[in-house]
Design goal:
It is found in: Plastid, Chloroplast. The chain contains 5 helices and 22 strands. The model is unreliable at 1-65 (pLDDT under 50). The chain has helices at 64-68, 102-109, 148-161, 257-265, 303-315, and strands spanning 3-9, 17-23, 39-40, 47-54, 74-82, 85-91, 119-125, 132-138, 168-169, 172-174, 177-183, 189-192, 218-222, 225-233, 237-244, 275-283, 286-293, 297-299, 322-327, 330-336, 343-347, 350-358. The protein is mostly beta strands. The protein has an 18-stranded mixed sheet that branches. The protein has a 4-stranded antiparallel sheet with strand order 1-2-4-3, with no helix packed on it.
Length: 359
């Protein structure tokens, strides 16, 4: 069976290139197309053809027929990323149950044998009066309550599905509660992430509260080292650290994240496991962060983690209420407003390509 995919590759310059791909793949191993130049592969029946390259025209919204297609046995998807935190997006508006299982999501997220992603996100019908419902399966098959970078990608995907133009917002039901993303005129997405949860038992953490029922700059022993941590929930649990014994300001680039991250995630004081943010303070309004995500490991960005980081920095007296947070994949602008106690996140979300795979 022939599989058709369109691949749109956003560039940093004002112009964009649009690649229209039509590949007739041999029926034994159908797969999604990749953004590569024309070439003939080892197997003569597998050929990728490139046409309609343009460097002058802006990207047009792909025809709805592709993503809305419902051929039996095939899954159509869009690949998006928010600062390198990448996701497979699936139009699931016709059903309240995800089209694929957590086990299938693990296969899709595999970067060697699947599409490759940090998670799979489903656009489902809204409940409790909301416009849409968002569910996510992590790359390990677990289901988090929410994902900040994911909800920005979700918003851009919905805008495409519904052909929404200009600045607009909608309501989204998530495991963390109501989330309201707003797609701005410049293409960025501003998200009202709601109020941070600070009560220790609600984060949740077993660490004893030491400041108004919250855990702020508390000592946590990990692998024999004393770390100073603040615990915050943005609908999902976060452990934020700026320092450890003998080092009052972390140099995050020097951390061996793959070694220390899992020890935080699975520490006994976090009954639901935890995301962990390691933060370096550059100024009162500028932070640098690396993250170990629960269920996904080291990622290039974490939106809820950036929000939790700014909340923790304020609680520890390290930063003001409006900060730029540098992540390996790029910056996010985070503001914790006094007026409504809500945290607002602003950042990019970009389409990578569209594809289809056999179920």
């Amino acid at each position: 069976m022939a599989i058709t995919a369109a691949i749109s590759v956003p560039l940093t310059s004002p112009t964009r290139r649009t690649f229209a791909f039509l590949n007739n793949l041999f029926p034994h191993t159908p797969r999604s197309t990749l953004p590569t130049p024309p070439r003939t592969f080892k197997y003569p029946n597998s050929r990728l053809v490139v046409s309609s390259m343009s460097t002058d025209a802006p990207v047009k919204t792909p025809s709805a027929s592709f993503l809305h297609s419902r051929e039996t046995g095939f899954l159509h998807f869009a690949k998006y990323h928010g600062l390198g935190n990448d996701f497979v997006l699936i139009d699931n508006r016709d059903s309240s149950e995800p089209r694929i299982s957590p086990e299938k999501a693990v296969q899709l997220c595999d970067r060697n044998f699947g599409v490759g992603a940090d998670g799979v996100i489903f656009v489902l019908p809204g409940i409790n009066g909301t416009d849409y419902t968002m569910r996510i399966f992590n790359s390990d098959g677990s289901e988090p309550e929410m994902c900040g970078n994911g909800v920005r990608c979700f918003a851009k995907f919905v805008s495409q599905l519904e052909n929404l133009q200009g600045s607009h917002s909608f309501t989204v039901h998530t495991g963390a509660g109501l989330i309201i993303p707003e797609v701005l005129d410049n293409g960025n997405v501003r998200v009202d992430m709601g109020e941070p949860v600070l009560k220790a038992s609600d984060v949740p953490t077993k660490l004893p509260a030491n400041k108004d029922n919250a855990v702020v700059k508390s000592e946590l022993i990990v692998d024999g080292v004393i770390w100073h941590v603040t615990c915050v929930s943005m609908g999902n649990p976060h452990c934020v650290t700026f320092s450890r014994e003998g080092s009052q300001n972390l140099l995050v680039d020097e951390l061996k994240l793959a070694e220390i991250g899992p020890k935080f995630e699975h520490h006994e004081v976090f009954p639901a496991r935890t995301n962990t943010e390691f933060v370096q303070v550059l100024s009162n309004s500028h932070l640098k962060m690396r993250v170990w995500e629960r269920g996904a490991g080291a990622t290039l960005a974490c939106g809820t983690g950036a929000c939790a980081t700014v909340v923790a920095a304020i609680l520890e007296g390290r930063a003001g209420r409006n900060c730029t947070v540098d992540l390996p994949g790029g910056p996010l602008q985070i503001e914790w407003m006094e007026e409504d106690n809500h945290v607002y996140m602003t950042g990019s979300a970009d389409v990578v390509y569209y594809g289809s795979l056999p179920l």
